[in-house]
Specification:
single chain; 449 residues; 7-stranded mixed sheet; 19 helices; 15% strand; globular
Length: 449
């Protein structure tokens, strides 16, 4: 099949309607020397969205690769996180100005017009560099497969976690003999835990941080607990909405109770409250370096299975090959080699709280010593992910449309049952809508592995 022309208007609409040219600029430049200046035989341009601690860890891995492969010059560039990154990557691929290697959130891959804006990985070449399908959790690997081809090579999964203060929970008799938080298997048990913790916590603090007015976090939490209830989104053909409004209402009522029972201070800085002694906070695993740096006595576990089934929200940073008309040869081979190297040497990446996707890393003695990472590594086996459709994924249309609805229920401006029905109506609308990248609906887009 040919590659339909993608004009500027389509690309901007697909990536969030960004129209400010300045937003396409680099947030920061990488450290790689240009191949012409370094004298290396091959250059790999690599675009990513990692800043802060993640950025430092990625640079450390890239520097290690450069030292071991002096014949390959890696030119890494860090762009602004979110839609600015995806807009620039889409426009570069459509205009045949794409880098050899890029990073994407796995949930965005189905909407990035695989086969048009992304090129498939050569799995045989990856295997030569030590990365094979059997090295991965099957569910995670399959998320990157579209129309039988691998378009996203997972680097990690990053999950939402229940962080808890051991020093506070010990006073409330909420720790087991192993020093970990006692297991919770129902909503009643969970609110009993919060009740006990509140009795011993410092005055002026909330009992738990839930990011009650943040549309992204509220959406991520909703995906997790809706999955715990066995909730479905669409049929396999992506032609019918199977969203269960009754189950959604249960989840929304659960969130709302945290506010009505006074366990949450809406708008309070969740991380700061936790550092100051709040018993719990629900945060992404990227908070591990922050809390460890503060030298807290804390632990972290997957979100509690209050609806009976283990499931915690998960996304994945993945390597992709942005479309190049002439992809192949030494530069393409080097891109495969670089991605495989980083995947296989992700212990450094795990220090940032992420769970390495490459399973052999998880069995190493060094990884097993990491705390609290070794407490929540089981999340790899019960990932709650967004549906595999073009409008899903980190900062995607689905989160932008439904996230504010979840917030309105949690904060009390709308009733849970009413919001659940609104969510279902929006899903019907989205399922019938067309991907601005290629003009196809979810049913037409080959998004089902």
């Amino acid at each position: 099949m040919g590659r339909p022309d993608l004009n500027r208007r389509q690309l901007l609409a697909a990536a969030g309607g960004l129209a400010v040219a300045g937003s396409f600029g680099f947030a920061a430049l990488g450290t790689g020397a240009d191949a012409l200046a370094s004298g290396a035989d091959t250059r790999v341009r690599y675009w990513n969205l990692f800043s802060g601690g993640d950025g430092a860890n990625m640079i450390a891995m890239l520097d290690a690769f450069r030292k071991e492969h002096p014949d390959i010059a890696v030119k890494d560039s860090t762009l602004q996180w979110g839609n600015p990154f995806y807009t620039k990557l889409a426009m570069a691929a459509a205009g045949n100005r794409a880098p050899e290697l890029g990073v994407m959130h796995m949930g965005r891959v189905a909407g990035f017009s695989p086969g048009r804006l992304l090129d498939p990985w050569d799995v045989d070449l990856l295997a030569e560099y030590g990365v094979r399908e059997q090295d991965y959790n099957p569910a995670l690997w399959s998320r990157g497969v579209i129309d039988g081809k691998l378009y996203a090579l997972p680097l990690d999964i990053h999950v939402q976690l229940c962080f808890y203060r051991r020093d506070v929970l010990k006073k409330a008799d909420l720790l087991g003999e192993d020093g970990l938080m006692i297991p919770v298997t129902s909503t009643d048990e969970w609110f009993e835990v919060l009740k006990k913790a509140r009795k011993v916590q410092k005055k002026g603090l909330q009992t738990i941080g839930l990011w009650t007015n943040d549309q992204n976090f509220q959406w991520w939490f909703f995906v997790a607990f809706y999955t715990q209830l066995g909730g479905e989104w669409f049929n396999d053909a992506r032609t019918e909405v199977l969203f269960d409004a009754d189950k959604a209402t249960q989840v929304l009522e659960f969130f709302r109770q945290h506010v009505t029972d006074g366990y949450v201070i809406p708008g309070a800085p969740t991380g700061e409250q936790f550092i100051n002694g709040a018993p719990f906070t629900w945060e992404g695993n990227w908070s591990v370096p922050v809390f460890s740096g503060a030298e807290l006595d804390y632990g972290a576990t997957p979100l509690p299975p209050v609806f009976g089934k283990q499931a915690t929200h998960a996304e994945s940073h993945s390597f992709v090959l942005p479309h190049q008309a002439g992809r192949g040869g030494a530069t393409n081979q080097a891109a495969h080699e670089l991605a495989a190297y980083v995947v296989r040497h992700a212990l450094q990446w795990a220090a940032g709280g992420h769970i390495p996707a490459y399973r052999p890393t998880l069995s190493t003695a060094a990884y097993k010593k990491l705390t609290p990472q070794n407490e929540y590594v089981s999340a790899m086996n019960h990932q709650a992910t967004e549906p595999k459709v073009w409008f899903a994924g980190s900062t995607g249309v689905l989160a932008q449309d439904l996230g504010p609805m979840v917030v309105s229920s949690t904060m009390g401006s709308a009733k849970p049952a009413t919001v659940a029905q609104r969510m279902k109506k929006e899903l019907v609308k989205l399922l019938a809508s067309k991907n601005p990248m290629d003009g196809r609906t979810a049913a037409q887009g080959g998004a089902v592995a």
